[in-house]
Specification:
Shape: globular
Number of domains: 1
Helix content: 55-70%
Strand content: under 5%
Radius of gyration: 18 Å
Order of helices and strands: HHHHHHHHHHHH
Number of helices: 12
Largest sheet: none
Structural class: mainly alpha
Distance between the termini: 31 Å
């Protein structure tokens, strides 16, 4: 049995293996199965814009993990939640993770700093592999070019959106990166991040005085909003 998508994409940190049930080994404890199922359901509901369901599923997952007394597991779940928020341009200081940070381990703290766009002195080697190339240390122009290429090279769509959100938060995303994020969310049918990134495109079109483009983007937003309202 393999780990759920939320774990493989967002939490390739320190203890992902603790939530992976091996097909060849003994039956995993029930908490592992329940926590993994709840985290997968949380991810799906969050990306669809189902806030109430997402909150319920995350609470269920966190309760299962907290029952182990393993701070690292609970911290990992909180980072999954933070990463999904960043992918959808919802930025806070990851309050659920902060009380756990001291015992979460260096990799988890590095990932939290990455999500917060706190990249000064960040040990890139501690980050999940898809995100390492996003953080570069060159001059201003080469940074944008290199980071844009790194974003486009990320194969996993959810990891790509997380990276785009981190770049946006750092004020380093290029227009092509915004388009990449919109297209990624659209192809996957992920309503919450799609609305957030379309909102960015609309604002930029308005700032550029392109009323026609802004109106077209607004029509897309209204279409997605209508789909959300029917759920």
């Amino acid at each position: 049995m393999t780990a759920g998508r939320a774990l493989s994409d967002l939490a390739t940190l320190l203890v992902a293996g603790l939530l992976t049930a091996c097909a060849s080994g003994p039956a995993p404890p029930q908490w592992r199965l329940d926590a993994r199922s709840a985290l997968d359901a949380f991810e799906a509901a969050w990306l669809r814009g189902q806030a109430r369901v997402a909150a319920q599923e995350f609470a269920r997952a966190r309760d299962e993990l907290a029952g182990t007394g393993d701070t690292r597991l609970v911290a990992q779940a909180e980072l999954i939640r933070c990463a999904l928020q960043v992918a959808s341009l919802g930025f806070d200081d990851c309050p659920g993770f902060r009380p756990l940070a001291q015992d979460a381990g260096p990799a988890a703290r590095a990932y939290a700093a990455y999500l917060a766009a706190d990249w000064q002195g960040l040990d890139v080697a501690l980050l999940p592999t898809p995100h390492r190339a996003v953080v570069v240390q060159h001059g201003a122009e080469s940074v944008q070019a290199a980071q844009g290429a790194a974003l486009a090279a990320i194969e996993d769509p959810l990891s790509r959106l997380v990276a785009a959100g981190a770049l946006f938060r750092a004020g380093r995303i290029v227009p092509a990166g915004i388009d990449e994020a919109v297209n990624t969310a659209s192809v996957q049918g992920w309503r919450r991040p799609l609305l957030a990134w379309l909102g960015v495109k609309e604002q930029r079109a308005q700032a550029a005085g392109d009323a026609q483009a802004a109106a077209a983007i607004r029509r897309r937003i209204e279409l997605v909003l209508g789909a959300v309202a029917k759920r």
